[in-house]
Design goal:
- It is a single chain.
- By secondary structure, the chain is an all-beta fold.
- The chain has a domain of 75 residues: Immunoglobulin-like.
- The protein has one helix and six strands, in the order E-E-H-E-E-E-E.
- A three-stranded antiparallel beta sheet has the order 1-2-5, with no helix packed on it.
- The longest helix has 4 residues.
- The protein starts with 57 loop residues before the first strand and ends in a 23-residue tail after the last strand.
Length: 155
């Protein structure tokens, strides 16, 4: 390839999507054809719906009295990313210690969930959202000072 100094017979293959050594094959394959090769940090090159561990879900808010929404982590992690919503009563804080904690999973492609139960007077619910795909589960963020929030309620 006269137009690229990195492509010639005997060149070292690098992760650039080109057949650098003119061997007839691009050596850094993208087995799942999701546009992310294993050498480009595709964490699961057998799953076209996942290419990175989900980042922290942000901007949680209610659009009405029962509909929780957030910024989806699928854009950075892959379209098969689902979101786990951990829910608990504020009176049972800290996270991970309440008997009322529950988990709802929002399907891939969504960034909303509906929560209908009304807490007892004087109490309220807390909500944490994380992304999850075949690479791994993301985090629920941290509780301050870099200490991650942890609950075992969601698988």
């Amino acid at each position: 390839n006269d137009g690229n100094a990195l492509v010639f017979p005997g060149a070292v293959e690098i992760c650039d999507g080109l057949d650098n050594d003119c061997g007839g094959v691009v050596d850094e394959l993208d087995a799942d054809t999701d546009g992310f090769a294993a050498c480009m940090a595709d964490c699961n090159d057998a799953d076209p719906g996942a290419h990175a561990v989900p980042v922290e879900a942000t901007d949680l808010f209610f659009t009405d009295e029962v509909t929780l929404t957030w910024v989806s982590t699928a854009g950075a992690a892959g379209p098969a990313t689902v979101h786990d919503i951990a829910i608990g009563l504020v009176s049972e804080l800290p996270v991970g210690s309440g008997i009322s904690e529950s988990c709802v999973t929002a399907p891939a492609g969504t960034n909303t969930a509906t929560h209908l139960p009304v807490p007892l007077p004087g109490d309220s619910y807390w909500y944490l959202v994380r992304g999850r795909n075949s690479c791994a589960s993301g985090t629920y963020g941290d509780a301050g000072y870099g200490i991650p929030r942890v609950t075992e309620i969601c698988p």
